[in-house]
Specification:
The protein is α/β, with parallel strands linked by helices. It has five helices and five strands; from the N terminus they run βαβαβαβαβα.
Amino acid sequence: MKKVLYVDDEDVNLFIFKVSFKDVYDVVTAESAAKALEMLVNNPDIKIVITDLRMPIMDGLEFVKVAKTKFGDKLFFLLTGYGLTEEIKQLIDNQMLKNYFAKPFNKSEIITEVEKH
């Protein structure tokens, strides 16, 4: 079972994601970008990272930029309540992000996209 790290500053979102995907992935969660970076260091078996966009201190885009330089072998996806911005598009074009998903998330869309990569 693939190990997926989901990053979000809202406990309810972490819970919903973990419960929704428990039969598909080994889901681990982090409530901040800093905690997620620490988890990536300590869990080299994490291959997929899905992060929320809006978080305090370091948002999802900043987190992806930092994490991708340190953990280039991981696949990063963004989960956001906002549409496709120019900055998100640039990160996808530059292969830092594989794709983004809209909130509320569509479970089958996420599974299909993750399995493609």
